[in-house]
Amino acid sequence: MIDVFSYVPAIVLLPFFSFLIALGVGKHLPKGGAFGGIAATAGSFLLSLWVLATVAGGEAANRTLYTWADAGGIGPTDIELSFGILVDPLSALMLVIVTLVALLVHVFSLGYMNDEGETGLPRYYAGLGLFTASMLGFVVADNLLMAFMFFELVGLCSYLLIGFHFREPGPPSAAKKAFLVTRFGDYFFLVGVVAVLATFGTAQFAGAESFPVLAEAALAGEGSVAWTPGGVELQTWLTVVGLLVLGGVVGKSAQFPLHTWLPDAMEGPTPVSALIHAATMVAAGVYLVARMYGFYALTPTTLAVIAFIGGFTALFAATMGLVKDELKQVLAYSTISQYGYMMLALGAGGYVAAVFHLTTHAFFKALLFLGAGAVIIAMHHNEDMWDMGGLKSKMPVTYYTFLAGSLALAGIFPFAGFWSKDEILYEALVHGLNDPLLLGGYLMGLLAVPVTAFYTFRMVFLTFHGEPRTDTARDPEPVRWNVKGPLTVLGVLAAVTGFINMVPVQKVLGLEGIDLLHLWLDNHWGGIEGLSSHHYADIGPYSSGYLVGGEVGTVLVGAAVSLGLALAGLLVAWRLYNVPSPTEHTAKLGGIKDVLYNNYYLDELQVWLAYRTEDVAGGANTFDQGIIDGVVNGVSSVSLFGGSRIRRLQSGVVSQYATLLTLGLVALLLALGVTGGWFL
Amino acid sequence: MTAVASSIPPEWYLLLATAVFCIGLFGVLTRRDALYFLMSVELMMNAANINFVAFALYYGDLTGQVFALFVIALAAAEVAIGIGIILVLYRNFGVTDVTVPTEMRW
């Protein structure tokens, strides 16, 4: 029996090797190293499928591979820092998603980058390889510190790729913004990692000695934690730790108020946007919460904060997407909004719903971005939707796949997004009936549904329907197989992924066993003890309430309301924009339009805040340069000065050495004599 | 072992050894010629030998004498190497003055 889990590191290392190859000899390879990346991600994808099949066969792995620091016996607790792998149903599913999307993005890049004659391709493919490798390392991480390291690598790669066209003014600035804003969140994450290590003496995600288990035992009074600061009550302290780690999540998953980097990140090449939004960077935050959900489920306050941030972000970002003129900008705001839904689900105790939406969103958002990439190729890199129109007949493959993705994004039955979004709203509703804060999150999520449907179809109608509005739109550049292939694969997935988890159908018709994802994440086919959705529900704070008609009635009402709202949004978009020559209706919004168009002036607010805190930063800088660096430099200058003086002893004259030796001997004898009392 | 040798108190041997050692040390510290160095070091080692033999006699133990033989053999080897070094020194600098070469490499 071959042990498939010993190949899990290879899943991470294959893209890493493609990074090294592209970086080292990429310029001598055909297509700038693209084939290396494609081969590596294909290899990782196949291995991931194998891992998925093995996990489905009832096996799982939680292994420490390499301990790189062992503080055994030095501190009050025995802390070991290590690298390891944790393969359970959640990470196996995520591995497949990430490798599949990465593979398709690599293939698409052949069309988007190589065929368009971009320069610097080895750098591009190296970045893609490292990006994929970092995300895969993050997915299989078995402890929080390792997860943090790969989290940071993901951030670094996003910086490198968003700023790919570094000769233009926009991309470098957007890359810096993405890096700094996410770093601001990661700062809290880092403090959280240290807090977890100090509190529990371990950062493992799973196993009997893992921090969620220890926290659970300590809260139940069956054990104690190694440390809490100054006698703070345990529940309070765990909430603080949870919120600290959440800082990193809010930054990476672009939740309010740290979402501002994401729309700017559209400056990067479109395939990179697809990778960032669907499978890597932004997904990392939500995945992290799901990974340590056993910890978050213990702290109701944190869950409520997550749910509220999520619901608010879902609505908030959706409203901004209403008025954007550029294709990718609309998609950017939809991403923020959709990740808001996932956060809402996690906060509402809907662990499976969140992972479900993460899965479906990965496929339909990758599809939409690659479709947008195809349109951008066709439009000679003009992204303004008002210059498009009528592309439907010119590029049917792109149109129909894009339409599938849009229907999924808008949550129209039976496309993937309908099932996952409906489940999120259902979970938020049934748990929210007993919890006002959660109900607020639910209502905001519900309000975002028609808004989402509206802006999605505004985008579709403006881009593909009506009369062509420019010469380029009348004669678009054709795209090749390497664009159509990935689109087709994702188009099918966007249409059918929802069927892996038809909970409403199961509840209404009473069919057993068609909620595959629920069973999968509930360790139905095996997994790791303590990492199942049932366990999370048991330790979570929520109880369910139902509207009229009990569970079935609530399911039907919830689904009908969200589908009805989505269709309403779609119809409004249809009436306004599905005409031969659509006009801007946003002017009717008056002043609101400006507010929305300028993203609620949040960027300005953040810049204003940055200027207000300039003095603090300046003071910190002076302190750092003057005091901290001053001490270090002072110590080194003492050494330097002493060294330069003592160096004179080494004259190279043997006689002097002999003299010094003799004098030393005499001094030693005298000292021994005086202390030993020879002269008395 | 003669009665004369055993009747001399060990302090005399130690005084002799100290005197020889100091003469050798004086040579090392004041001379600049490498050959003088070698001879002075030889004197210092023989001062140690005198001590060894004296204490061997005093305690009636042969270990010290054996050690003295070892030191003599060692001194012979050391002189062989030392003279080799002095030859190289002379070839490179034209003098045997130890204060002239002051760097390990040049």
Automatic annotation (TrEMBL), chain A:
<dbReference type="InterPro" id="IPR003945">
    <property type="entry name" value="NU5C-like"/>
</dbReference>
<keyword id="KW-1133">Transmembrane helix</keyword>
<feature type="transmembrane region" description="Helical">
    <location>
        <begin position="90"/>
        <end position="112"/>
    </location>
</feature>
<feature type="domain" description="NADH:quinone oxidoreductase/Mrp antiporter transmembrane">
    <location>
        <begin position="141"/>
        <end position="430"/>
    </location>
</feature>
<dbReference type="InterPro" id="IPR018393">
    <property type="entry name" value="NADHpl_OxRdtase_5_subgr"/>
</dbReference>
<feature type="transmembrane region" description="Helical">
    <location>
        <begin position="234"/>
        <end position="251"/>
    </location>
</feature>
<feature type="transmembrane region" description="Helical">
    <location>
        <begin position="485"/>
        <end position="503"/>
    </location>
</feature>
<dbReference type="GO" id="GO:0016020">
    <property type="term" value="C:membrane"/>
</dbReference>
<feature type="transmembrane region" description="Helical">
    <location>
        <begin position="147"/>
        <end position="166"/>
    </location>
</feature>
<feature type="transmembrane region" description="Helical">
    <location>
        <begin position="302"/>
        <end position="323"/>
    </location>
</feature>
<feature type="transmembrane region" description="Helical">
    <location>
        <begin position="362"/>
        <end position="379"/>
    </location>
</feature>
<dbReference type="InterPro" id="IPR001516">
    <property type="entry name" value="Proton_antipo_N"/>
</dbReference>
<dbReference type="GO" id="GO:0015990">
    <property type="term" value="P:electron transport coupled proton transport"/>
</dbReference>
<feature type="transmembrane region" description="Helical">
    <location>
        <begin position="124"/>
        <end position="141"/>
    </location>
</feature>
<feature type="transmembrane region" description="Helical">
    <location>
        <begin position="6"/>
        <end position="26"/>
    </location>
</feature>
<feature type="transmembrane region" description="Helical">
    <location>
        <begin position="552"/>
        <end position="574"/>
    </location>
</feature>
<dbReference type="GO" id="GO:0042773">
    <property type="term" value="P:ATP synthesis coupled electron transport"/>
</dbReference>
<dbReference type="GO" id="GO:0008137">
    <property type="term" value="F:NADH dehydrogenase (ubiquinone) activity"/>
</dbReference>
<feature type="transmembrane region" description="Helical">
    <location>
        <begin position="657"/>
        <end position="679"/>
    </location>
</feature>
<dbReference type="InterPro" id="IPR001750">
    <property type="entry name" value="ND/Mrp_TM"/>
</dbReference>
<feature type="transmembrane region" description="Helical">
    <location>
        <begin position="272"/>
        <end position="290"/>
    </location>
</feature>
<feature type="transmembrane region" description="Helical">
    <location>
        <begin position="439"/>
        <end position="464"/>
    </location>
</feature>
From TrEMBL, chain B:
<keyword id="KW-0472">Membrane</keyword>
<feature type="transmembrane region" description="Helical">
    <location>
        <begin position="36"/>
        <end position="60"/>
    </location>
</feature>
<comment type="similarity">
    <text>Belongs to the complex I subunit 4L family.</text>
</comment>
<protein>
    <submittedName>
        <fullName>NADH-ubiquinone oxidoreductase chain 4L</fullName>
    </submittedName>
</protein>
<feature type="transmembrane region" description="Helical">
    <location>
        <begin position="66"/>
        <end position="90"/>
    </location>
</feature>
<keyword id="KW-0813">Transport</keyword>
<keyword id="KW-0830">Ubiquinone</keyword>
<dbReference type="Pfam" id="PF00420">
    <property type="entry name" value="Oxidored_q2"/>
</dbReference>
<keyword id="KW-0812">Transmembrane</keyword>
<dbReference type="GO" id="GO:0042773">
    <property type="term" value="P:ATP synthesis coupled electron transport"/>
</dbReference>
<keyword id="KW-1133">Transmembrane helix</keyword>
<dbReference type="InterPro" id="IPR039428">
    <property type="entry name" value="NUOK/Mnh_C1-like"/>
</dbReference>
<feature type="transmembrane region" description="Helical">
    <location>
        <begin position="12"/>
        <end position="29"/>
    </location>
</feature>
<dbReference type="InterPro" id="IPR001133">
    <property type="entry name" value="NADH_UbQ_OxRdtase_chain4L/K"/>
</dbReference>
<dbReference type="GO" id="GO:0030964">
    <property type="term" value="C:NADH dehydrogenase complex"/>
</dbReference>
<dbReference type="GO" id="GO:0016651">
    <property type="term" value="F:oxidoreductase activity, acting on NAD(P)H"/>
</dbReference>
